[in-house]
Amino acid sequence: MSTCTDNWAEVEAAAKLVLGEKVVAFILERRSQPHPESQLIAVLHRVQAEFGYLADAHLDAVAQLMQVPAAKVAGVASFYHFFRLKPRGRFMINVCLGTACYVKGAERVAQKIIEELGITWGETSKDRVFTLEGTRCLGTCGLAPVVMIDEQIHGELSPDQVPALLEKYLKKARE
Amino acid sequence: MAQKKKISLKIDDTPIQVDAGTTIMEAAEQLGIRIPRLCYHPDLSLAGSCRVCIVDVKGMGYYMTACSSQVWEGMEVQTNSPEIRQARRDIVELLLDNHNMDCQTCERDGHCELQNLAYAMGVRQRHFEGRRKRFPIEMSSQSVVRDSEKCVLCGRCVRVCAEIQGVCNLSQHGRGFETVVGPAHIANMDDSVCIQCGQCINVCPTAAFMEKRGSGPVWDALADPEMHVVVQTAPSIRAAIGEGFGMPAGTAATGQMVTALRRLGFDRVFDTDLGADMTIIEESHEFLTRLKEGPLPMITSCSPGWVSFMEKFYPELIPHASTCRSPMGMLSALAKTYYAERAGIDPKKVFMVAVMPCVAKKFEARRPEHFSPDGLPYTDAVLTTRELIWMIKCYGIDFARLPSGEFDAPLGLASGAGDIFGITGGVMEATLRAASELVTGKPAERLDYTEVRAVKGLRESYVAIGEHNIHLGVANGLTNAKLLLDRVKAGEKFHVIEVMACPGGCCGGGGQPYPPEGVKVLDSDWVFERGNALYSIDAKKELRKSYENPAVEEIYSSYLGGPGSQRAHELLHTHYHARTPRGIR
After folding, report:
1. N or C: chain A end with fewer CB closer than 10 Å?
2. In this complex, which of A6, A59, A78 lies closest to B174 when CB atoms are compared?
3. What pTM did the predictor assign?
C-alpha cells in the first residue's frame, strides 16, 4: 500500500485518537483494495455507524488516512442526505411524509412532536435524546401515518398519542 | 501512429470532417463558430454544469451540451435557431436569477464573464426574480477573498485548484440551492490548505474569488506628506500592464509604467529586477556551497505560492529550498536599510509598495520573517498588476500617451537577467549565467539557455558548467512540480530545480490582467507573449549579467560586505517552516 506521504506514522496515530482502533483498521483494509478512492463512501458509512454522525475531525482523519483531499471528503459527506454532519440524539425519529401518510395526517403528528420536543426538522433535542427527520415513503402505507423511531415502526398514530410514545423512549434513555 | 478515424458531420448545414473523439464545441471552432460557454475551459476537465453551450442535434429529443458531447458519423448540429438562442438566454437568466446584480459596485465590473455573457445572449430584463443566496464575504486570507454570493457554481476554481495546482483545496459542499464552493468544512481560507496562488481568481468568471484589496493604505500613504513612498515593480508587470490599456499582449511598457507611477505620486520608482539580480548572486553562491556540501537539489524560492505549497505539502523538502528571500523581499529589505540610510530618511517614514503579478505576495509580505528585527514590515503594501491598472485609471492617467520614464537609482538599475525572472525558466537561466562564471572563474560564454525557455509545464535538461554536468528541472503549475518532486523523493539526482506556482510563471500569475473577451484565461500562448516581451527586454540590454550590475557591486562593496556575508544573510535570506493543515499530495 502506497502511503505517499512522509508522515504516515503520525497520520495513523492521530487518526486512531479521533476514530479509534477498530475504524482505523477498517479504513486501512479498505485502502488496500484496488481502487481505494472508490471506497470513500463505504468508509464514511462505517464512521457514521460508529459515531452517529461525521464531525469535521472525523472527516479530516478520513482524508489523511485515505490520502484523499479533505475538501473532497467534506464535499462528498455534505452532498448525501444520509450523512449527518451534526451529532444526533440517541433515538432517531423519522416521520414519514410520503403521500399516504401525509393524507392520513402525518403533518399534524409531526407538529405535535415539534411542540413536545421544542425542535424542528433536522434538529436534536437539548438532552440529546431525539433527532427529528422527515422521510419519504417507508413502504408501510397500510399503517399510515407512520413514525419510525430508530428501527421501530409506529403506525396509525394520532397527535394525542405522541406524548406517551415519546415518554416511552425517554424512559429508555434514563435507564 | 495510427491515423485517427475521421467523422463526417454537419454543423449549421456546413459539412466538416473531424477526428473521432472531437467534441461538438471543438468541431464548431474549426468552422469559426464560437458556441457560447461558461463552465468550459479547454485545459480543465469537463463539467457540463452551466448548460450555456447547448446545441440542437437532429433526432435528439433534447438540447445537448456542445462541450461534453462527442461527434458521431452523420450528426447534424444546429448551433443557432430562435429556439436555441431563447433557451440559452433563459439559462443565463436563470443563472442571474439569484445573483447579486450589483454590477456597478462590483470589482469585476467590465471584466466579468457573466456580465459579458448576459449581454451577448441578449438578456435585457429580469424575468425571474428568485431567492437570493446569502453568504458572508470570507476575508480571513491575506490574499484571496471568497464571496459565495457571486458564485455561479461553474466549478472552474475547483478544477484549477485540483488539476493545475494539485492543491485540491476547493470543493462544492452541500447540494441544490444551498451548494457553496469553499475549502473543507467551508473553513476560512486562512485555515485551509490554500497556498494563495490566486488561480481561482484568474479562472472565476465573476467576483466570487478576488484578491484582497491593497490600494487603500497606498492612497493614504501617497497623500501623506510625512511619508516617503517608494514603489517597486516585478519583472512581469512591464510585460502585462499595457493590456489594461488596450495594448496587445507582449507589449513591453516599462517606460510608461515608470512615468505613470511617478504621476501617481511615488517618490521613488525602484525595480524588483535589482532584487532579482541580488537573488541571483546570493542563490548562485548558495548553489556553489550546496554543490560541495549539499543538500541537493537546490529548489528556488521566489514564488510564494510554491513556498506555501512546500510548507503544507512537502515539508520534508524545506532543507532543499534556497534560503534566499524573493526579489521583492530583498529589494524591500534594502530599501528600508541601505537606501533609507543613504538617503538620510527614517526607515519608519519609508512606505514600500510592491506591484506584483501575484496575490501570494500579499501573504509573503505579512510573514514575520519579512519584518525587520524591530518589527517594521519591509514591504508595507502589495498591489497586483490589476490593482495598479485600476489606480492609474482612477487617477485619470492616459497610459498609452505617457512619455517614457526611467527607474530611480540606486535600486532601479537591473540587468537583463533580472527581467527574465518573470517567466518560467527565467530564474534558472539567470542562475546559469551567474553560476557558470562562478564555477569556472571565467566570463560566461553563453548567455542564452533556450532549453529552459518555453511555457510548457515541465522541462529538464543537462547543462555543463565547468566539470559539472548539471541536471536541472523547471516546473510551473504545481501539478507539474509534484511530478518533479516525487522523482526527487524517489532518489533521482537533480542539482537545481526551479518551481513557479503559476502556469507560465509570474507572467501567468494570479494578479495579472484578465484576458480580453474571447481569449481564454490561462492561455499559454498569451502568457508566452508576455514572456517574449521580457526576453526581448533582456536581449536589448547591454547589461545582461547580474554580476556586472554596478548597483549590485556598490551595494555589496559599500554596505553588505560581499555575497554570503553576515549582513547579507540578515537582509537577504529567510527560513521556512511546516504549516498546517497538512495537504494531501
Report:
1. C
2. A78
3. 0.92
